[in-house]
Design goal:
By secondary structure, the chain is α/β, with parallel strands linked by helices. It has a single domain, classed as Alpha/Beta hydrolase fold, catalytic domain (Rossmann fold), CATH 3.40.50. Helix content is 39%, strand content 17%. It has an 8-stranded mixed sheet with strand order 1-2-4-3-5-6-7-8, with helices on both faces. 47% of the residues are buried.
C-alpha cells in the first residue's frame, strides 16, 4: 500500500514541479535559466572529508569518510534532465554512502545547452580512470539517478572501448534510458506521473544530443549492450514515465542473459529513493547496503 507521505510528495510535485517543463516554451526557459550551484553544502564538510578538483576542465567533488579509510568507492552521477545542477537530495544520499564507509566521486558534468554528451563522456571516463588508479574496480560501484542514471549506464557500456574494467555493480535510480521517449506504454504512464512531462523532456533531450542521433546508446543506453556489464539494479516507481523503459531493459536482459534486476515500487514517484517517504527511506537503506556491502 502506498504511504500517505508518498501520496503527499506526489501532490506537492504536481502543484509545484509539473508546470516547469509542461510546454516547449517553459522547457526552453528552464534551459536558459541559471544552473544552480555545484558547491557541496557546508554540513557535508563538517561531517566528511570533502575535496574538489578539476578533471579535464570540469569539477569533481570527492566525499570520503572522516577519520577512517574507505572500504568501498562509487562514482555518483546526479540527475536533473541534463539541464540542472546537483540538488540537496543527491548530496544527502552521498552523505549516507560516506557514513557507510564509501568514498564517493561526484563529477559535475557540463549541462545543456552549453554542453552535450560529447563533453560528458570523456570527463566521467577520466574520473572513473583516476579512481581506478587508487581503488580496485572490484570495490567500485557506478550509480546515478534519472539523467545521471542514463549516463552511468552509458558509461558502463563504453568502458571496454576505453580499456577499463567493469565496476563491481551498477545502481540506477529511475534512469532515463531512452531520449526519444518512444515506448508505446509511455503515454499511459505519463498521465499518472505527477512530475515529468515528455514535452519538456524532448527539449532537454534535443539540447543534450546536440544534433546527434538520440537513439545512439551513448544517449539512450537502453539501446546499448547489456552482455558483459556488471550486475545492474534499477529502482523505479509506478507513477513515472521511466517505468516502461526500465521494465523493457529487464526483459531484454533476460533474453541476453545479463544480470539486470528491477525493483518496481507501487505508487512511487520519480527517483523515489531520494524522497522523504517510507518507501524512499527503505530504498535508500538498500542502496547504501548494496554499494557499501
Amino acid at each position: 500500500m502506498t504511504s500517505l507521505q508518498m501520496r503527499a510528495v506526489a501532490t506537492v510535485l504536481r502543484l509545484t514541479r509539473k508546470r516547469a517543463m509542461a510546454t516547449r516554451e517553459r522547457a526552453h526557459r528552464r534551459l536558459a535559466a541559471p544552473k544552480g550551484s555545484a558547491v557541496p553544502p557546508a554540513t557535508l564538510g563538517r561531517r566528511h572529508d570533502v575535496t574538489v578538483r578539476e578533471v579535464g576542465g570540469f569539477r569533481c567533488t570527492t566525499v570520503a569518510p572522516r577519520g577512517r579509510a574507505a572500504t568501498r568507492a562509487a562514482v555518483y552521477l546526479h540527475g536533473g534532465a541534463y539541464v540542472s545542477a546537483i540538488a540537496p537530495q543527491h548530496w544527502a544520499l552521498v552523505s549516507r554512502l560516506a557514513d557507510a564507509g564509501v568514498r564517493v566521486e561526484v563529477p559535475h558534468y557540463g549541462l545543456a545547452p552549453q554542453h552535450t554528451h560529447r563533453d560528458a563522456y570523456p570527463f566521467v571516463t577520466a574520473v572513473y580512470r583516476e579512481l581506478l588508479a587508487e581503488v580496485d574496480a572490484t570495490d567500485v560501484s557506478l550509480a546515478g539517478d534519472s539523467a545521471g542514471g542514463g549516463l552511468a549506464l552509458g558509461l558502463a557500456q563504453t568502458l571496454g572501448a576505453a580499456g577499463l574494467p567493469q565496476p563491481r555493480r551498477i545502481v540506477l535510480l529511475s534512469p532515463w534510458l531512452d531520449l526519444t521517449l518512444g515506448h508505446p506504454d509511455l503515454p499511459t504512464v505519463e498521465r499518472r506521473d505527477p512530475w515529468l512531462v515528455s514535452t519538456g523532456l524532448h527539449v532537454a533531450a534535443e539540447a543534450w544530443a546536440g544534433g546527434d542521433d538520440p537513439t545512439d546508446p551513448r544517449l539512450s543506453p537502453g539501446n546499448g549492450p547489456l552482455a558483459g556489464l556488471a550486475p545492474v539494479h534499477v529502482y523505479v516507481g509506478t507513477r513515472e514515465i521511466c517505468l516502461p523503459d526500465a521494465t523493457a531493459l529487464r526483459e531484454r536482459a533476460r533474453d541476453e542473459g545479463a544480470a539486470v534486476e528491477v525493483t518496481v515500487c507501487e505508487g512511487a514517484v520519480h527517483v523515489y529513493p531520494l524522497v522523504p517517504a517510507p518507501e524512499g527511506r527503505a530504498a535508500r537503506r538498500e542502496i547504501v547496503r548494496e554499494i557499501a556491502g
